[in-house]
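Lab notebook, bench 4. Still working through the backlog of constructs that have no structural model yet. Next entry is a single chain of 292 residues. Request: give me the structure tokens for it.
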Amino acid sequence: MNTSEEKRRVFRAEVLGFCMGVRRAVEIVDELLERDNAGTIWTLGPLIHNKPYLDSLAERGVRAARDPSEIDEGTVVIRAHGVAPSVRRKLQEKGLKIVDATCPKVLHSQQVVRRYSAKGYTIVIAGDKNHAEIEGLKGFADSYHLVETPEEAAGLDLPETSLLIGQTTFNPELYSAIADVLKESQPRVLIEDSMCNATGDRRRAIKQLVEKVDAVVVVGGKNSANTHRLYLAAKETGKPAWHIEKPAELPDSVFEFKRIGLAAGASTPDWSIDRVEEYLGKEGKYYERHRS
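Model written out:
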């Protein structure tokens, strides 16, 4: 071995991979698969935004449905994003067995929206308009506005009895900016602290990671909003960055770097992260694993 040659080093972000809510949902499905009486197991929508994991579920017989109308029998898992009350009622009316894997943080947000709607409040929901969590939250509100940007928030004419709440995985800085805009036009608006710590923890971890490395690989589903934001945070530093789902998507140019950072979204399984790390190290003998 040529010990004078510099070894390639892979640094993992301090926080990466499954958040609490996603890990809980995955464990619930794993437990159902071990039972003999669960029947056909369905998830309402993809359980998590990670194609390799979803492919593995399909191989184990778990089916995904877009709507309750597609399910006639078996056990239905409500994923971490939660669902609107109307969707739950449809499942109940069909006599299906329901297993609720709604993230506790999302469940809390749903309860807040329900409680303040019952008091006559107008609800302002900040988030990605097509996100499943937003679809669920809307179902708990009698009167609501949906905004993605401070500019959209500036166009609202709110009554004094108004509440702002956000998608738990929404950008915290953007949420704060929206809150500031609303408070300028309606000082009495209530601001709910609904951001998930897992999202902020991963953003802080990737900022620390980029200071130690020459390039960053972010592992996670291409349709995962939180993973995409991690990738953008890495890219904004000016260092080379790639957002991949599997090792084969990495270009050969990644091996030109000796200090590579590895991060992953909140819906990325541990085994998926491990495979990418192994791939980064397989191209030569001169490789060391570093835990940040």
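Notes after review: Confidence is low (pLDDT under 50) at residues 284-292. DSSP finds ten helices and 13 strands in the chain. Flag for follow-up if needed.
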